[in-house]
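Researcher: Re-running this chain for the archive, since the previous output was lost when a drive failed. Same request as before.
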Amino acid sequence: MKPKAAVKKNVPKKSVKKAPVKTKKSPVKAVSQLPEWDLTDFYASPESPEINKDYERLDKLCSAFQKSYDGKVTRLSGDQLAKAIAEYEAMQELFGKIGSYAQLRFAKNMSDPAIAQFYQNAQEKITVLSSQILFFALAINKIEDKQLEGMLSNAALKYYAPWLRDVRTFKPYQLSDEVEKLLHEKSVAGRSAWTRLFDETIAGLRFTIDKKKMTSAEAFNMLSMKEPAKRKKAALTIGEVFKENVSLFTLVTNTLAKDKEIEDQWRGFRQPISSRNVSNYIEDEVVDALLAAVSKSYPKLSHRYYALKAKWFGKKQLDYWDRNAPLPGDTDRTYKWDEAKELVLSAYNKFSPTLASVGTRFFTNDWIDVPVTAGKSPGAFAHPTVPSVHPYLLLNFQGKSRDVMTLAHELGHGVHQVLAAKQGALLCDTPLTLAETASVFGEQLTFREMVRREKDVKRRKRLIASKVEDMLNTVVRQIAFCEFEKRVHGERRNGELTAERISQIWMDVQSQSLGPAIKLHGDYKYYWTYIPHFIHSPFYVYAYAFGDCLVNSLYAVYEKNKVPDFEKKYLTMLEAGGTLRHKELLKPFGLDATKPDFWSQGLDIISGFIDELE
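Model: Regenerated structure tokens:
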């Protein structure tokens, strides 16, 4: 198993603030005074001698661990296995610390060659060192079931039972030790290298609109501007730039799809999506039910809403660049950073002072990077890092109401990661399907607060419409993305796909999901090229729909006051991290994702908002 050095769900014991490194401030920050994160809670600087000391420490720990346990795991007692897992956990923590630091620096500026070199070198060193302990998880899966059951009577080992359960989920798909080690060591020159090429290419793209060169985040922000001419110009420019680079993105997509196909066949996964389902600890059938339920709901959700929106614009069809346009008469409300911060924390506090208190730490301790800067990773994310440090949030804040909702979303991730940190490096992670629980719930709380504060009836209508659009983007659009991936990966098994074929699949899927009221044409067919989840984490996208539908059902329970001590149970759920599966986590709320009507309950929330707008 690869050490956790990237996007997982961990978090902190109390961190000690170190003296900030003196660096040249970015011109964007000088103008906007938006906060940037302080990474010195990891290391003082990339040149810090502590980094090399940690590499040396890891080398010694890994070597000693291999010498002590390689070839002996199946003969250990319960107490001895618990001791070995604790040592393994400490090394994973250290791997994660170095890897997270390198990744966050790279996300801040992916165009800087020195930063990219530091990131690549860190990945390579971590891969080499961790190869020494790769045997451990593989050997755990060689322990007989009855033998392990007897060993779990040991209290120290029982603590790690959820981690052992998750490791052994992969037992049917495990290859020989030699092949696993080969795949592990080759990853830095294979999938990771292609992913880095994608990231650096996207970060380096510039979109010249009205004689101004923009990053992708700035260009996409124009698609939600009030002026139709600006939206159109931005959309056409984005399409032109993607078209110019489509050959490279096609090569990356084909290569990674083939790479996945080869590994999936060796491991015996039934479908291209199955490996993601296993890593999410969820059955193929449950995911298939989600995909089917959302696809079936297209007409009553996206098709109906976009027809309604076109009517508001006095048209039968909207061009694709008007899909996220402000409604006619919208005052194009913007939010200052301090206003967005106050709104989100206030919404959190009304539900749970504990959530708000944890969330406040992100603002007071420089755990958020806010402004749009050259070379910065587009979009937004929450990086859990490791329990000995704390999570960090990356935003590209430009003052839109959607940016406020993004802050609420990513802060929810961060709070979740902080609360789960006490479970330790091996047990704090949640599968992707549950990782969206706090983030989407935080969005819902913030949206309700925004509506409550708005006294103007027309403005309230626009807020609801904006929320519907966000929910359609989270549920309908992400399921369409998943369908796109299923078709691309499925056809790739029969040979390489051309750019035109991938683009045609994209247009077919988008047309089916968005409906006849959205006119898709021209270079929109190349918009598939920029979506990072297709490259970083194949089939990740359905987790958004899973999380949104789950939280819609959860929020309905909260709103109807059906469950006593809801806040306490909710916090307990977040604190559980990866120790419990979705059935166990949802049981206190009377919810069950395996039941056929579970998904329709969540989708009915969206449909209800559209009913209200009609």
